[in-house]
Amino acid sequence: MSCESVIITDIIELDYSNKSLVITSQDSDEVFLKSSISIAAAITAYARMERAEILLDESLDILYFDTDGFKCLQKITELPKYKHLNHDGLGALKYEGSFSDSIFLMPKVYGGIFKKTGDEFTKLKGFKDKVEFNQFKELLLNNNEKILTHHKWRRDMLNSEIINSPYLFKFNEGGQIINFTPLLFF
Fold this sequence. Notes:
By secondary structure, the chain is α+β, with helices and mostly antiparallel strands. 16% of the residues lie in helices and 39% in strands. It has helices at 37-55, 133-142, and strands at 6-13, 20-26, 62-66, 69-72, 99-106, 109-114, 120-124, 145-155, 160-171, 177-182.
């Protein structure tokens, strides 16, 4: 890549440091299939640093957190300590609603029923289809297992295919997930 073909499209000044993130584009038809692991790691680490103050705040009753958000008993956008923060921009602390009933099983596996609408929301790591909230409850309370199936797009350099990909979702007697791995059948 020559310097003449690179165009700087944006410069983002990082708060609390003398560093900047320079976003560039290249005027080329060439496609790069590799991702930048170092940039992804830096962004994730910076997000964790920004979130650390909130996670260490003993006045918040945090029920769950992962890399991109957290759930707590308080409405953080109304708390005096956090009211001044931007709650609308990219990466901001957005209030997404309150649950009347919720379950947090592990990172990226949780669900709830919204207080205002009664609508269900569930998130199941690596599983794109909808899972009913009651299925989460049954799994946790009855110590049973569930095999869920969804269509998954797989591609490599030579082939692309859509496969049915079953997941075994199971808890042990202590209520801990003991197997949450894709079962690959070809």
